[in-house]
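During the first year of the project, the team set up a workflow for recording each protein of interest as an amino acid sequence followed immediately by a discrete structure-token representation. This format lets reviewers and collaborators read both layers of information side by side without switching files. As required by the reporting guidelines, we include two representative entries from the current panel. The first entry is reproduced here exactly as it appears in our internal archive.
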Amino acid sequence: MASQGFDNTGLGTSEGGTSPGSHEREDTDGSVYQLLDGPSDVQRGVLQALGATQILNGIVILALGVFLGSLQYLSHQFRHVFFFTFYTGYPFWGAVFFISSGSLTVAAGRKPTRSLMENSFGMNIASATVAFVGTVFLSVHLALNTEEFKSCQSSHSPDLCICLGSSSNGLVSLMLILTLLELAVTISVSVMWCLGNISGSRKAISSPSKSAESGIPPDGSDSENPNTQLQVTTE
């Protein structure tokens, strides 16, 4: 009596449902995207908190820019220097970038899919660039205000000059602090995304190597499983 065995892994897969390998692909390409090693609830909470901070920064910077622009109607003599940031438009287009990136970050925290994380990552990179440009504008504004303060005593209305300069310095200083905070937040979100990608790549590389060492195929099929093997006996 002779026996001949035929491996029928595909049959076992169709009868027993999807293989573990297919579940791994669904986790990678589907709904949930793991950021870092650790509790997922904590990671989502951190993302939502960072996104809310970005939205709040954008709203406050927009409000400060509107208030700074309204001061120019008090006098037309000093507006070219004391309202430099307002004329660059940074409080408006900067706020749009910050609110948009914050909204995407909050959405990625609630449902961290790969598409949302990629969009949030790209928007945060753009917001970091905008925050850097805004930091330059605000620093130049403060430097110009310092020089203009020296000529306030020789102006026609020194009291108004000092009042406008002080108000402008205060508003611009607040915007500078919020811009630096925004820059730190966008960098933090981008670092979390990059570390999550590195961690996912290492897991993808280590899983096939461990399966090869143990003699088990990467898809989790077992040649000794009676459900995946046909035994044909002939005489």
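The second entry, processed by the same pipeline in the following quarter, appears below.
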Amino acid sequence: MKTLLNLIWLIFSGLWMALGYLLAGLVCCVLIITIPWGLACFRIASYALWPFGRTVVQRREAGAASGAGNVIWLIFAGIWLTIGHLTLGVALCVSIIGIPFGLAHFKMIPISLMPLGREIVPTGAQAAYPHYRW
């Protein structure tokens, strides 16, 4: 079922979102100081391509630098990405068929708000990360 949902997601929403995140990652990697955000954009792009069966966990070893980077990201990009995911999520949840895809947009809100210090893992691998906060 996850594969079918991922394929439908890829055609209607995931490919366009991933291309947007890839473009943002390339722009961020042009400047040396914004490379961490560019790498985060590449991680989010892979998550946007295939979100079903994967989840985001917080890395405990991420330090103050990722917290400061998240604040900068939140101001310049996080708010706008979150508004986009929220709008698309609500629009997709209007129909019964679109509910899983709307929920996938809602699932992407935490990583679009604060991508640094997060890791994308398979859903079944959550038990391997007991020290993560859910």
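For the second entry, the following points were noted during internal review. Residues 2-30 form the longest helix (29 residues). The chain has one domain: 2-119. Both points are flagged for discussion at the upcoming steering committee meeting.
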